[in-house]
Amino acid sequence: MSDNTKRYDLAQIRRAIAALFQPGQIVEVRMMNKKKKITATGWYDDYEIMAKHIAKLARDGFGEGHKFIQENVYWTVNPVHEGLLAREIRNDVHFAEDTTSDINILSRRWIPVDIDPLRPSGVSATKEEKARAKEVTAQASGATAGDRFPEIQSGARNVRQRLPHPDSL
User: Fold this and answer.
1) Number of separate domains in the chain
2) Which of 1, 43, 51, 140 is the most buried (most CB within 10 A)?
3) Are both 48 and 79 inside the same structural domain?
4) What is the pTM of this model?
């Protein structure tokens, strides 16, 4: 796959990090291949290193041979316990058995909401389903307006609509 067809943009990754995370917040970055049952993860407190690693992982994947992962890159949106930095080398990704669990989340600052059409796994959404998902996103945005929830930020590229809400629960 050529570099220009892969989805990574360092400037866009930096903008997302700046919008989502507070200084000093510990963030887990994760890639997984469910079929191979392998996970690569790392915990970061240096956002510049994290941004560069995310771009590289999105472009090149991780690992070699059977243990190669070329999947999406994920990160935690809520602050995680700083003790997780001690699991592996800080600010780097490694194959891992353990990942961040609910008990490691210090607080809920964001409430991610996925809005997907119901369809079989592996089947692409139709134009109508994508349009409906956008309508539902707009409705959800209107329903949560007010003092409790600030304006919703939709991060949809295709059919999946994400509505993260900054909050402190």
Assistant:
1) 2
2) 43
3) yes
4) 0.74
